[in-house]
Amino acid sequence: MKQPAMFLRIGACFLTIAAGLSMVAAAARPEATAPAHPELVVSTKWLSEHLTDPNLVIVHIGHDEQDYRAAHIPGAIYLSMDKFATSHSEPGTELLPPEELKKNLESVGIGDNSHVVYYSPDWDPMATRLFFTMDYLGHGGQAALLDGGLDQWIREKRPTSTEAGAAKPATLTVHLHPEIVAKIDSMEKLVAQADSGIVIVDARPSKRYRNGHLRGSESLYWENALASEKDPLLKSPAELRQLFAAAGVTERKKAVTYCEVGLQASYVYFLARYLGFDAAMYDGSYNEWSRAQQPAVRGDSPQ
Description:
By secondary structure, the chain is an alpha/beta fold. The protein contains eleven helices and ten strands. It has two domains: about 40-175, Oxidized Rhodanese, domain 1, CATH 3.40.250.10; about 180-290, 3-Layer(aba) Sandwich (Oxidized Rhodanese, domain 1), CATH 3.40.250. Helix 5 (about 125-135) links the parallel strand 4 (about 115-120) and strand 5 (about 145).
């Protein structure tokens, strides 16, 4: 009678080990590390196959329209950075008033039914700033970053155009989400009394972080999300999750990003949303923080 019982215990042990191995294998499968919102990124291949989609709006974001006219993705419409972000609006934010944002986005054909694909050859954070703006207006789910941007498009020898794109009439219904915009008063409280459920994330280069950062903030330089300086494509979702994990951001914690003026922070905010993390952005960022003579920490340590 003892021998069967022993075999039963051994069998149960093997089943436990097998179940554990199965869980490890499941975690290693691509779907286990896939982004929560894959629709927030599109490839150049996808875009090339959907250029004639009726609801597609391709947005070329920049500071100089002459660069746009020299070469852009066919059908792309130029959107100047100052049409959706400026330092001359409400103190502590670069967001324009909602009615201005609505008018300016409608002027380039962005409406309720649009599928927006955006890129900026000048600097990637200028592009993700549009995503943050659309998320604030309640339409982030219909905006996708072009992975690799115009650089990747040209590298693959895809056609470019010098003809200005024509915007279609559009109506954008605003559903504001002020909760994704962190203000200085909430940051003061968060710095003074750390919240175990919130991680402050500094999106600037490590040198800028060392020169001065908000107490308790973790460093996650936005450009580390790219394959390399010469390869502008995003790293895999698993690698991106590792970057967030190293900064202490998990599914149970909220990330509040900041940088200098709310551009680099918008990229990390975008990544957080892409992966499925709860997130907000301190729009005034370090520029407002230092102007208000708030205390800062120097060095590599959060504290």
